[in-house]
Amino acid sequence: MHPNGSALLLTPTRRRTVGVVIAAVLALVGGLLLAYPDRAGAAADPLISGGKSATSSSDESSDLGPQNAFDGDPATRWASVEGKDPQWLSVDLGATADVTRVKLSWEDAYAKAYRIEISADGTTWTRLADEAAGDGGTDDWPALTGKGRYLRVYGTARAAAYGYSLYEFEAYGTLGGQPPQTGAFTVVAAGDIAAQCTASDSDCAHPKTAALAKKIDPKFYLTMGDSQYDDARISDFRNYYDKTWGAFKAKTRPVPGNHETYDPAGELAGYKAYFGDIAYPQGKTYYSYDEGNWHFIALDSNSFDKSAQIDWLKADLAKNSKACIAAYWHHPLYSSGGHGNDPVSRPVWKILYGAKADLVLNGHDHHYERFAPQNPDGKAVADGITEIVGGMGGAEPYPIEEVQPNSQKRISGEYGVLKMDFTDSGYSWNYIGTDNKTKDTSPKYTCH
Question: For residue 116, how far is the Cα from the chain centroid?
Answer without folding.
Answer: 24
